[in-house]
């Protein structure tokens, strides 16, 4: 890795915990420079504003996560198990890091304000990957969608919508992982083909 790339990595690695701790609005470039152990002047040579820096972090996180999700979905094993692992990766990399914030909703809102195009493109790619996985599972009789009267693309959209809803909803102290596992149990029961049981 070239020195400039190492510096960008160092800055982005340092910035996320700062944004999580202080929130987007209260984080300053000085805070990020301090966390990255560089001068403010050096930070400004790489990023002209915290908005640009936040956007770069969002791009990196979404790209890395989608690559990992693709690897999981293209791997071996039952489709529903791979979908559950892919969702777990997505949540661990893109949602859980904000969970330690005093105001995660502010960070999610900042992401949509500054990087909506990145987030929406990632969502489109995720939907496509889930749809292809579901299509293959239907074709191999691993799952059955006829009882649901839903095509693979519609079910993929419901899965992604559920993931979004789960990140915002907590009941009786349940965790993101607990609520996701419940959703996946429901999905598994709904789509399991009789011939694959």
TrEMBL record:
Residues 5-65 form the HTH tetR-type domain. Signal peptide: none annotated. InterPro entries: Homeodomain-like_sf, HTH_TetR. Keywords: DNA-binding, Transcription, Transcription regulation. It holds the Pfam family TetR_N. Residues 28-47 bind DNA. PANTHER family: HTH-TYPE TRANSCRIPTIONAL REGULATOR LMRA (PTHR47506:SF3), TRANSCRIPTIONAL REGULATORY PROTEIN (PTHR47506). It comes from Rhizobium anhuiense. This is TetR/AcrR family transcriptional regulator.
